[in-house]
Amino acid sequence: MSDLEFLLFILPSVIALVLIFNNVIKKSKQNTLNLPPGNMGWPFIGETIGYLKPYSATTIGEFMEQHISRYGKIYKSNLFGGPTIVSADAGLNKFILQNEGRLFESSYPSSIGGILGKWSMLVLVGDMHRDMRIISLNFLSNARLKTHLLPEVEKQTLLVLSSWKDNSTFCAQDEAKKFTFNLMAKNIMSLDPGKPETEELKKEYITFMKGVVSAPLNFPGTAYRKALKSRSIILKFIEQKMEERIGKMGKGVENLDDDDLLGWVLKHSDLSKEQILDLVLSLLFAGHETSSVSIALAIYFLQGCPKAVQQLRAVNFEDYISDFLKVINETLRFGNVVRFLHRKAIKDVKYQGYDIPRGWKVLPVVAAVHLDPSHFDQPHHFNPWRWQSKNRARAKLPKGVEITGAQSTSGSPSSSTTGATMSNNYMPFGGGPRLCAGSELAKLEMAIFIHHLVLNFHWELADDTDQAFAFPFVDFPKGLSIKVHRHTL
């Protein structure tokens, strides 16, 4: 036997011994740590299948309920391909988010980066995430919300609602998605609703979205593979628009129109083409999906709370802002569009006696805190009035934002807002350095859309069994079918 043949013969055995040795070392190290209690589940897949099993969006699901009951609010598991600390503890969740970049960092599955792009704000960490976030925050500043985005939000709202016929039945979720897609397409790339190129982009985007929320199986015929193809088509579309803008820059950057995000980024940043493409795609995704689900949830919850609808129709301008902020807060608390966040420990961490080893995934489950009776009284009831305490910090719409159609007692619109209380344990937009850059726009969209909805329509569920489910993304599988009746106040 030659030396090469001998090497090839023993190599598999050597690799196996190394892997076994490493596994023994890891287990030995874990035995010296005070890890939270829990169950690591099956080899490789762990407990991921059980964790992702669909359940009612107004609950935390059977998996979480059983694990919290058995192990407490902090437990270990094996999820998304690795050892994981799951937190339903409000204190630990805040600790994780406030120590972003120091002890923890974003750690979404690689399939998310593959479909949203490596420059997506969702997957970026460190300085690059900070820079991208600053660009987004500048574009979504309070001044721009008032001068550019508010009129467009109202315009797109009225465009959708004007198409609703009296005594008609349709899927409210589809209408909410139509509204948010048209709004984002207009404000990101100045695309007009209903135009052929806008509708073609929407078609590809729908395919793209189905892949984002599907199993990451990159095989022919799968939703994920189709989404990757649609991603490529969407990026080519954005790149074409970008090249048209760059052509205009021959006359100088100062002459470039920066009313939309694409123009803003080209004029006010030095990002590469690839970075701009991923940023635009990720903001189209974030601005469309979460906002449309939030609006659908508000429609769903309000139809079961006629007192809240009646109050929104009857109050003056100042009280309207206050009352609607209560509805926004309660919708996001009860519906939990973003249910948990993906993080990992970048250093060995101790928390309340527990060890969180470096390299382990950490999942702060926001929904579990929002639905915890120790933090929110009767958490499984939709109760906007829980947010009216005068003893806590108040939530506000962006400074200077006004909503037309509601009258101030002084006879003119007021920019001041009194409002709903914010609990320290309320984190629908995350927290820390990764607090959602579009949170103010999302609240504005909800406020304007529901404002005009309650002023112009009564509505009821067309199917009493229709409800939101967590997959873990929140969705109405039946589309939230409603019957509307037009009225004029």
Q: What's the CATH C level?
A: Mainly Alpha
Number of strands: 13
| Count of separate structural domains | 1
Radius of gyration in whole Å, from Cα?
A: 24 Å
**Contiguous runs where pLDDT drops below 50 for at least 5 residues:** 2-9, 16-22, 391-398, 403-422
Q: What is the end-to-end distance? A: 94 Å
The class by helix and strand makeup works out as alpha+beta
Mind summarizing the main beta sheet? 5 strands, mixed
In brief:
This protein has helices spanning about 5-30, 50, 60-70, 90-100, 110-115, 125-140, 140-160, 170-190, 195-210, 225-250, 260-270, 275-305, 305-315, 315-335, 365-370, 440-455; strands at about 55, 75-80, 80-85, 105, 170, 345, 350, 355, 360-365, 455-460, 470, 475, 480-485. With about 500 residues, the protein is of the alpha+beta class.
Characterization of this structure:
It is a single-pass membrane protein. It is found in: Membrane. By secondary structure, the protein is α+β, with helices and mostly antiparallel strands. The protein has one domain (about 50-380, about 425-485): Orthogonal Bundle (Cytochrome p450), CATH 1.10.630.10. The protein is about 50% helix and about 10% strand. The chain has helices spanning about 5-30, 50, 60-70, 90-100, 110-115, 125-140, 140-160, 170-190, 195-210, 225-250, 260-270, 275-305, 305-315, 315-335, 365-370, 440-455, and strands spanning about 55, 75-80, 80-85, 105, 170, 345, 350, 355, 360-365, 455-460, 470, 475, 480-485. The strands form four sheets. The chain has a five-stranded mixed sheet. Strands 1-11-12 form a three-stranded antiparallel sheet, with no helix packed on it. A hairpin with a 2-residue loop joins strand 2 (about 75-80) and strand 3. Helix 14 (about 315-335) packs across helix 16. The longest helix is centred in the middle third of the chain and has 31 residues, at about 275-305. The protein is globular.
